[in-house]
Amino acid sequence: xxxxxxxxxxxxxxxxxxxxxxxxxxxxxxxxxxxxxxxxxxxxxxxxxxxxxxxxxxxxxxxxxxxxxxxxxxxxxxxxxxxxxxxxxxxxxxxxxxxxxxxxxxxxxxxxxxxxxxxxxxxxxxxxxxxxxxxxxxxxxxxxxxxxxxxxxxxxxxxxxxxxxxxxxxxxxxxxxxxxxxxxxxxxxxxxxxxxxxxxxxxxxxxxxxxxxxxxxxxxxxxxxxxxxxxxxxxxxxxxxxxxxxxxxxxxxxxxxxxxxxxxxxxxxxxxxxxxxxxxxxxxxxxxxxxxxxxxxxxxxxxxxxxxxxxxxxxxxxxxxxxxxxxxxxxxxxxxxxxxxxxxxxxxxxxxxxxxxxxxxxxxxxxxxxxxxxxxxxxxxxxxxxxxxxxxxxxxxxxxxxxxxxxxxxxxxxxxxxxxxxxxxxxxxxxxxxxxxxxxxxxxxxxxxxxxxxxxxxxx
Length: 460
Prior knowledge:
Blueprint: H1 19-31, H2 33-39, H3 51-67, H4 73-84, H5 89-104, H6 111-139, H7 143-155, E1 181-182, H8 187-190, E2 199-200, E3 204-209, H9 215-228, E4 233-237, H10 242-254, H11 265-274, E5 280-284, H12 292-304, E6 311-315, H13 329-346, E7 351-356, H14 377-381, E8 384-389, H15 392-395, E9 399-407, E10 414-421, E11 426-429, H16 432-438, H17 445-459
Parallel strand pairs: 3-7, 3-8, 4-5, 4-6, 6-7
Antiparallel strand pairs: 1-2, 8-9, 9-10, 10-11
C-alpha cells in the first residue's frame, strides 16, 4: 500500500463540520481558483480528517506551489492516477467516487456559506498560531518581530496576489491547460489557430448582422452544436416565442425544414429517441423587460433544479434592460455587455449573444467592428465578434459573408463565403464551385481567394 503521511500539528481540524461539509470545502477549492489562492496561505491539508480529502488538498496545493496555478479537475485526476495506480485501491476508489459526486453537482447552492465559514476558521487558526509564537518572542524581548508577526497574521487569507511574476512563474506559462469550449460546428472556425475548439468558458461571443440576416439562426446553431456535444444549453429569447425558438432547434437537429415539422412529428421524435443529446432550456422574456440580474436569478433557480449550463445564449443583448439609467443609450448598452461578460466569468460559462449592425452595415461587403450599432464599447468588451453580411439579391440563394472581426483566442480578420439555411438554422462555408455558380460575374472571387490564403496560413 502506498505510504501516505501528513504531519499533524496542533488541534486544528474540520472534524466538527462533518464529512459532507468537508467535501464541499474541497469542492470550493477546485471550482473557485481565486478563493483557493486565498486559502493557500491559511489552510493545511491536515485540517481535513477525511484521508482522501487530505490527499487531494495536499496534491492540489503542491501543484500550485510549483507552477503558480491550480490544476484543472482533469489534470488532477491524471496526477492521482499516475501516483496511486493500483497500489492503494481503497483510497483511489474513494477519490473517484468523490470527484464523480462533484461533477454531478458542480455548483451546490450552499457553497458560498461553506467558503465563508472555512475562511474564518482558517484565519482564526493562523492568528492563534501567531499569538503562540508571539509569547516566545516577547519573552526574548523581540518586540519588533512581534509587530511584524501580527501584521502578517492579520493579512493572511486576503487576496494578495501581486500578479504574474515573470521569472518565478515561468513554469505556469508552458503548461498545456485544457480549454473547455462549445464548438461552432464550422470546422474552419473551430480549428486550433482560430477559435481553438469554439467559444470557451468565461468568454463572451457576439454575432453582429443587419436585420433579417440570421443572428437568431446563428444562436440556435450554436445551441444545437453544444447539445450534440452533450452539453446543457440555456437559451434566452427576448424577440421570438419559446415555441418558435424550439421549432428552430427541432429543424436544425432533425434536418427537417421548420415549415415541415408538423407533418413529420414522428420523424422528429424518432430522431431524439435514437440520438443522445444534451439538455435545453428555452426561457422567454418580453423585450426590454429582462436585465442581466433577471438572467442571473433564473440561472440560480436552474441550479437548484439540477441544471448547470455549459452554454448560455441571449437573443439578444441589445434589447435587454440596463441595470442603470443613462442619458445615452450607448452607455446603457455598454454596461449590459460588461455585465454579461462578468456573468460569463462568475458562472464559468460561455455566452453567445447578438447585436444589430448600424445602417451602413447593410450595404457593405462585410460588417466590421465599426458597424456595431450604438456602442463601440460592446466590441471592446467581447472576446469574440463574428459578423454576417449579405445583399438583398443574395438572400434567396442563402449566400452570405462571415467575418471574424475580433478573436482573443486566435486569428481574426478572416473572411469566409458562407451558406445560411434558414429553414434549418444551419451555417456552412461554401466551396469555390458554389461561389462561382452563384456569382457568374465573379463578385465573390476575391472573397474565395482570401479564404484560400487564410487556409494556407492556418495549416502552416
